[in-house]
Structure formats: C-alpha cells, structure tokens
Amino acid sequence: VQVVESGGGLVQAGGSLRLSCAASGSDFALDIIGWFRQAPGKQRELVARFGDDNNWYYVDSVKGRFTATRVHGEVRWDMQMKSLEPEDTAVYYCNVKERMPAIAVGSFDEFDYWGQGTQVTVSS
Question: Cα 31 to the chain's mean position, in Å?
C-alpha cells in the first residue's frame, strides 16, 4: 500500500492550505485513521481522527479551522486548513488502514500505513 500526502507549503499566518492524502496498491478496503502532524522536537500528534461513526474529531487547537473530508469516487482524503498559525508548522501525515479477511471466518485483519508526510510552514 502506498500513501502519499501532498499540498504542503509555506504560507503566512492567517493563510490557508489544502492537504491531500492518496492511497493505492490494495485489493481490499482502505480507509483513513486520521491526520497527524509532527513539529520539530515534538512527538507526532493526532490532529483529526475519523471515527467509526463516520464523523471527524479534531484536536482542540484546530477546531473550527481545519476540516477533513473524503473525496468521493477516489481513495483520497483532503484536509482544508484555514487561519493558519505559526504553531501549525509541522510535517503532516495521514495514517491509512487496510482491512482484509482473516483466516477465521467472519474476522478481519487490519494493517496501517503512513506516507512520507508533507511540510507545512506558517510564517508570522
């Protein structure tokens, strides 16, 4: 499974960016677990999680500014980011899961995959 993030760049504070996460290379169901980011010297953190109820859940620091969606007809997810702040500077990753039938009837195995990330830099 290949996962590719794109859309990052350099933007001034208050600006917007739209990130994309595309997945391919599987004959089984692929779905996103969430969007993560990692700032220099910090641990990777969850930014937006796709729940089992098909709703998105956001970390408090991005609520109202970031909106994640699935692109219909494609194995791709986007995240619109607006009102960007210097604190949003990080490498952004998406985490995608592959779900396939397991040996035991009625059960499934899941594997997750990461992309290489896309750099978002917000200048003050």
Answer: 11
